[in-house]
């Protein structure tokens, strides 16, 4: 592992954090293609939001360095090998997942301008423009900020202190993997790109999962790493689709329909394991209650907020009510996982549904307790669509701590989607 | 650290363990020069002795691989850069430590033949010929066997298991160094070549000591690493000198004089920090009692067997009896050290003498408890002069467990040197 040496070198020359346009989550590309077809002209704004105010990013990270890294991302374009891989690779058992017209557009793409300001110890970082372009900023923006924060903390450490830091993190991850391999029918993927410690570390984590878990490790959400390590790229869709569709709704009736409109567009484009419902944007309970019948035939569901066990139980009941056999359905857990939670959910749902895990921050960025003041502890940084064609977006989710949007709009959405009281839980990552 | 990757590769291509004639202890070269001047024609036999019979080296290590490695050592000769370094470098504050006639001889040297047989699960490995040549086999022979044993144990491990193994060993060493740096006036050197886990690991340990201990780290006994890392090469003399001189003695009177004859030759050649008494070959107590007065003026003493605290107290009393100020004398501890022992001796002798430590096996080969069956636990392998001009050598030391030689000769030596009962202690390394 030469990571420590590399990190040691970060501080005396520029070392680009994001070096490829496909160093991003696979679902961003799937969604981008869908948006490119269905909503290419929509204007959106994406904005960085640090939900952990105590981590004062603007005090930690030099603005000049941040600009250099973001400018570097803007200089990237798809390489020939990357384009070949996207065009020729089999994703979810399907060839030519990406249509020629989309690929041509993507090959010509450079990421649009960014707007950066400091306020109250935080960076205000926003991206505005056409949805298909702007949305591709999300992952590189997060990766750049996460890794600059890591570098800022590690800057004062000697080469051997760094080696020992990575030795400890390595040992910790390996011990987690040793525990997980006890779970005989485990299926788990890396979802850790956005909050990773750094690219090299994520790449190492993926290799450790490959060696330690074998077939239990189903792939990575990161396209660059999937290509590099010749493994499956994993992912389907995310909250930005219902959030933007909802913001574009002309009235309450259209708003209530927006989440299903998203999935109807998706249904038309994808089948099999790509038909995964993400039900929590405006409350899982109401979403399932009002869902059209055709949705019950989808392959599975992804649980990304609230109490995951309760949400999965609700999904099981819903499938049963619609005459579906839950044992043939896939439940993907992807919110705030670590080994204990994975073990608990695995045992709770083993044999009742097909279970899969998307493991994020605690896979690719668990440096808790390894440096003074716990300065590498995970924190909750997101980059979200905040407006579409000039209207604010809203997210409710199953955890009010994750809600976002203007207060009056939140109230309106709660009314339209029939969301009552929710249980708040702390958002760590 | 790419050690894990390297170890992973050991098993599919030949990877020479010893790659340089100066990948050896500095004191071997100092002694070699002395022997080359004073006893060049003496015939000696050196032999490998594994004092830990439970480690069955011949079962672990393939004979073909061992021969390949030993043959490779025989193919080595001094490189131009190595010769330049030996001729030009300053050792112990002195330039041209190595005389031109010795350097010319050394530049032309290839190591002599070896004789290898298997017996009772062990290798019988012997070297015969002229003393200055044969004696240079000691360190490479030990390094080859130690590292082949490490490789044999690691052979079945995956790349990530290896990474985690080294991560744990790294963390352990760093924690030791963190403890040692608390000792404000510590002086410590690496003496771990002969029983190292492997060359790369020793080189890493030395760099860790450099970064973690700064000035407290005084250097390494390994010439290649001293050259590579631009630090001090450390060492003076060893038991082989009195052992061979004693074996060559014609009668008991000459035998009793032999240890002092060695030091008289050394006195003529060296001064300052190279005048270090090694008193235990035939019992420290008697050695000091019968020592000539001029020896009390020497710079210090090295404690290499028995109870180190007691031996150092005896040395202090001896200096005081001879009118010397112990506070100006150097005591070097070099037997079976680990952090606890170093701390204990440091506090016991701080301010009473100048204290220095030569840290060996537990610096460069502490993998205890890190693999199943503790298969990397340290063990006691030595390579010693067993005869000189056809007569057997004898070593008594201050620990009867370290005694060697034919029983009748041991009895004679005990009589001549007035060695009574000794306390046995387990020899771990």
Automatic annotation (TrEMBL), chains A, B:
Coiled-coil annotated spans: none
Single GO MF descriptor: nicotinate phosphoribosyltransferase activity
PTM (free text): Transiently phosphorylated on a His residue during the reaction cycle. Phosphorylation strongly increases the affinity for substrates and increases the rate of nicotinate D-ribonucleotide production. Dephosphorylation regenerates the low-affinity form of the enzyme, leading to product release.
Keyword Transferase: yes
Catalytic activity from the UniProt record: 5-phospho-alpha-D-ribose 1-diphosphate + nicotinate + ATP + H2O = nicotinate beta-D-ribonucleotide + ADP + phosphate + diphosphate
Highest taxon listed in the record's lineage: Bacteria
The protein's enzyme class: ligase
Domain Nicotinate/nicotinamide phosphoribosyltransferase: 187-420
Modified residues (Phosphohistidine): 239
Nicotinate phosphoribosyltransferase N-terminal domain: residues covered: 22-145
Claim: Transferase is one of the keywords in the record: yes
Pathway(s) annotated for this protein in UniProt: Cofactor biosynthesis; NAD(+) biosynthesis; nicotinate D-ribonucleotide from nicotinate: step 1/1
Record keywords: Glycosyltransferase, Ligase, Phosphoprotein, Pyridine nucleotide biosynthesis, Transferase
GO cellular component: cytosol
GO-annotated biological processes: NAD+ biosynthetic process via the salvage pathway
EC number annotated for this UniProt entry: 6.3.4.21
SUPFAM superfamilies attached to this UniProt entry: Nicotinate/Quinolinate PRTase C-terminal domain-like, Nicotinate/Quinolinate PRTase N-terminal domain-like
Function statement: Catalyzes the synthesis of beta-nicotinate D-ribonucleotide from nicotinate and 5-phospho-D-ribose 1-phosphate at the expense of ATP.
HAMAP family: NAPRTase (MF_00570)
Family: Belongs to the NAPRTase family.
Protein name: Nicotinate phosphoribosyltransferase
Biological source species: Gemmobacter megaterium
């Amino acid at each position: 592992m030469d990571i420590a040496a590399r990190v040691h070198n970060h501080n005396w020359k520029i070392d680009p954090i994001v070096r490829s346009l496909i160093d991003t989550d696979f679902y961003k590309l799937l969604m981008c293609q869908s948006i490119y077809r269905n909503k290419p002209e929509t204007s959106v704004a994406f904005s960085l939001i640090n939900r952990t105010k105590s981590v004062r990013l603007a005090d930690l990270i030099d603005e000049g360095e941040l600009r250099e890294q973001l400018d570097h991302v803007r200089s990237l374009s798809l390489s020939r090998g990357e384009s070949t891989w996207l065009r020729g690779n089999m994703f979810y058992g399907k060839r030519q997942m990406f249509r020629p017209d989309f690929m041509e557009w993507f090959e010509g793409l450079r990421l649009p301008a960014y707007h950066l300001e400091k306020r109250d110890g935080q960076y205000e970082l926003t991206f505005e423009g056409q949805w298909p372009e702007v949305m591709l900023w999300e992952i590189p923006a997060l990766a750049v900020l996460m890794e600059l924060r890591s570098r800022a903390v590690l800057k004062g450490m000697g080469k051997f202190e760094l080696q020992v830091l990575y030795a400890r993190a390595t040992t910790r991850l390996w011990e987690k993997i040793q525990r997980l391999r006890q779970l005989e029918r485990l299926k788990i993927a890396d979802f850790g790109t956005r909050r990773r410690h750094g690219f090299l570390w994520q790449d190492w984590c993926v290799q450790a999962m490959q060696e330690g878990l074998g077939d239990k490790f189903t792939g990575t959400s990161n396209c660059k790493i999937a290509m590099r390590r010749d493994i499956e790229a994993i992912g389907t869709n995310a909250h930005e689709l219902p959030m933007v569709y909802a913001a574009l709704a002309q009235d309450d009736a259209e708003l209530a329909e927006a989440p299903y409109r998203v999935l109807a567009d998706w249904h038309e484009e994808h089948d099999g394991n790509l038909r995964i419902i993400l039900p929590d944007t405006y409350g899982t309970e109401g979403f399932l209650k009002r869902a059209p019948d055709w949705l019950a035939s989808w392959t599975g569901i992804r649980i990304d907020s609230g109490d995951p066990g309760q949400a999965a139980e609700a999904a099981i009941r819903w499938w049963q009510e619609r005459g579906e056999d839950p044992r043939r359905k896939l439940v993907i857990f992807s919110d705030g996982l670590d080994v204990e939670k994975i073990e608990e959910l695995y045992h709770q749902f083993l044999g009742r549904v097909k279970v899969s895990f998307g493991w994020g921050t605690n896979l690719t960025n668990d440096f808790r307790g390894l440096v003074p003041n716990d300065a590498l502890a995970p924190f909750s940084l997101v980059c979200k669509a905040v407006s579409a064609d000039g209207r604010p977006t809203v997210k409710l989710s199953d955890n009010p701590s994750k809600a976002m949007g203007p207060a009056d709009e939140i109230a309106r959405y709660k009314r339209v989607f029939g969301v009552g009281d929710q249980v708040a839980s702390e958002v760590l990552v």
